[in-house]
Design brief:
It is built from 14 helices and 15 strands.
Length: about 400
């Protein structure tokens, strides 16, 4: 499968099989909460691995919303002083929060009680410098791709440059921004980079990063929460995710508008951003239902026929795991991650290819037997490869590798 050109996922092992190769005291920091949805779930599952292994020293996060891991092991920044500038525009406020998190983590590392540091790109430059000085091995998780591999650098550069040429408050605000050079230095300082997909790994390879510095760590899914439901009587395509151009909502709407499929409907499950509204107006059909943001997407995914998600840029989209667990074939892109194999669990299209999206929808609409086959294969794939148990086992493998590299 994609990603196996990196390290193959390690087999499930008992704690005794890894004894002596794991750290004694891990410091973990993340610009998120522990427990919840999205990235908060990733953080919680990460800590379950280290807490279960008996080596979680401390986690630093912006809140704690779970009860399984003792609060004494989590340094919550919920009442942080950066709140005083919460009225700043998001890039400045978020930049300040990231740098405050980094400052706190660096102070923890300086105490000398930790022997492994794990954080996220954009959140840990100061901490990585301290880790390097103290000989502490470090892991940086990459939520998407290499900083130059997908984002629009021009927009970010213009913001920074225009602010840096002004005076007073604006010049001070400019120092709050998380700039490209911060990411680049973090990549270099880290001992191991965790990448979520083969596409993400490629963006590092083409910039000369050695294979041994890249560790393949796809996400997981709760296969008890996300599971097949009753199939609808009509063909129901579901798009789940924020309605933004980066995730391809405009291409889904245009393809749907072209087709005019009989006895079919399109559900849009996710927050409707302003940039999507013109496309909703332009390509509207009466068989489109805008559900909006929901806290339990499984209740909509498991009532669909197919999931259509032609994202242009992701690390490894969690919704692709969730849709597969609900036994939905998917029309998606390689840029969305490695869950779907073309022709097996769904149909892979190129980002922005409206003709291909429309053709895939038409094909699945006309072949319910293929929908059934792909849906069964999708459910089987996540159960066998992408549960949270698989994720935690792979993560322990990354920790082992980082510790060995430091010897």
């Amino acid at each position: 499968m994609p990603g196996e050109t990196l390290n193959a996922p390690p087999p499930l092992r008992s704690a005794s099989a890894t004894e002596g190769t794991l750290p004694r005291h891990l410091l973990y920091s993340i610009f998120a909460r522990i427990g919840g949805s999205g990235l908060d779930t990733d953080a919680f599952e990460t800590l379950r691995a280290s807490y279960g292994g008996g080596f979680l020293g401390k986690a630093i996060a912006y809140d704690n919303r779970q009860k399984e891991i003792p609060a004494s092991l989590i340094h919550s920044l919920r009442w942080h002083p950066v709140r005083l500038i919460s009225f700043f525009d998001r890039p400045y406020y978020y930049g300040a929060k990231k740098k405050y998190l980094d400052w706190i983590a660096s102070r923890h590392l300086a105490t000398g009680r930790y022997d492994l540091f794990h954080s996220w790109s954009g959140d840990c430059l100061r901490s990585l410098r301290v880790a390097k000085q103290r000989g502490i091995p470090s892991i940086v998780e990459i939520p998407t791709w290499h900083r130059d591999g997908g984002k629009n650098k021009v927009i970010r550069r213009k913001i920074a440059d225009s602010a840096s040429t002004s005076r007073g408050l604006e010049r001070w605000k400019a120092r709050l921004l998380v700039e490209r050079k911060r990411f680049i230095e973090e990549y270099q300082l880290a001992d191991l980079l965790l990448v979520l997909s083969e596409r993400a790994a490629h963006t590092f390879r083409v910039r000369g990063f050695p294979e041994e510095k890249l560790f393949y760590l796809p996400r997981g899914v709760d296969v008890e929460r996300f599971k097949p439901g009753d199939r609808p009587a009509k063909f129901r395509a579901v798009f789940a995710g924020a309605l933004i151009k980066r995730k391809g909502i405009q291409h889904v709407l245009e393809a749907w508008h072209r087709l005019n499929l009989p006895d079919a409907e399109l559900w849009l499950v996710g927050h409707v951003h302003e940039e999507a509204k013109p496309f909703l107006k332009q390509f509207w059909r009466d068989n489109i239902r805008v559900v909006g943001f929901v806290r339990h997407p499984e209740n909509y995914l498991n009532r669909g026929t197919v999931h259509v998600f032609p994202s242009q840029w992701e690390g490894s989209a969690k919704v692709t795991y969730e849709a597969a667990a609900c036994a939905l074939p998917q029309i998606t892109t390689r840029e969305a991650g490695d869950v779907v194999r073309d022709g097996v669990e769904g149909i892979i299209v190129k980002p922005g290819n409206v003709d291909a999206i429309a053709a895939a929808l038409r094909h699945l609409h006309g072949h319910p037997e293929i929908v059934q086959q792909m849906g069964s294969a999708a459910r089987r794939r996540v159960v066998e490869n992408f549960t949270w148990d698989h994720f935690r086992t792979r993560l322990l493998g990354a920790y082992e590798m980082a510790m060995r590299m430091a010897r």
